[in-house]
Amino acid sequence: VKRIRTHHLREMKERGEKFAMLTAYDMYTAATFDEAGIEVLLVGDSASNNVLGNETSLPVTVDELLPLTRAVTRSTRRALVVGDLPFGSYQRSPEQAYDTAVRFMKEAGAHCVKLEGGREMAGQIELLTRGGVPVMAHIGFTPQSEHALGGYRVQGRGDTAQRILDDAKAVEAAGAFAVVMEMVPGDVAGQVTRELSIPTIGIGAGNQCDGQVLVWQDAFGLRTGRMARFVKQYADVHGVLLDAARAYADDVRAGTFPGPEHTF
Ligand code: KIV
Ligand code: NA
């Protein structure tokens, strides 16, 4: 199996082939998604509110994300593994971003990193790229800036569409190898996709992007409750686990597990 590299994604864009990206935070999900042929696995800062029990992505730290990232890189053979730089670990300066990115690569084996922001992150993207760290940018709605943006809302509607385009062009010019667009109108994301040479990856950004990404707990139904409009549910993992846990508990209480075949 050949490892997917950043240039492969660009070549897929040039051929008009779309690619799939999912989050992953541990060995068995990573290995399963890799086996399924998912091209890109993101160890998202969404681990904060999908693995570590926080309400948002803001509290998660580099020290918490590194072991999860290491688990994913160790458990995949083909997928490109992206380390997601958490809030506060890169915004202060390009140097801070570089030091953090190097930890993801050296200590966790990440193949590249993702950071949130457009024009304002050009310095970070330039230094990282120059220093051997491929960068995936993330524009549109950027969850780490939830409080600055005034909550979860679509970005780039109406006459603010130009700002999305400017951000996309700025991160491409700074050296980003791909850009995630989150909660952007489909036609705006389509225009960005046509005007950029690097691949775009949508989440709530319509079907004209070069790739798509979803948080797996949302898409495969481990998380229950209110889901964003852009999520499609492909499975009911919560239901599978709930039924299995109840069946196990019933067996234990009834004395039917373990049976003779499980007993030495
Ligand atoms: O952390 C995350 O899961 C993300 C994706 C949804 C793009 O940043
Ligand atoms: Na993220």
Automatic annotation (TrEMBL):
Domain of life where this protein originates: Bacteria
Catalytic activity: (6R)-5,10-methylene-5,6,7,8-tetrahydrofolate + 3-methyl-2-oxobutanoate + H2O = 2-dehydropantoate + (6S)-5,6,7,8-tetrahydrofolate
Binding residues for 3-methyl-2-oxobutanoate: 45-46, 84, 114
Listed EC numbers: 2.1.2.11
SUPFAM superfamilies per UniProt: Phosphoenolpyruvate/pyruvate domain
GO terms classed as biological process: methylation; pantothenate biosynthetic process
Pfam families in alphabetical order: Pantoate_transf
Descriptive protein name: 3-methyl-2-oxobutanoate hydroxymethyltransferase
Upper taxonomic lineage: Bacteria, Bacillati, Actinomycetota, Actinomycetes, Propionibacteriales
Gene this protein is translated from: panB
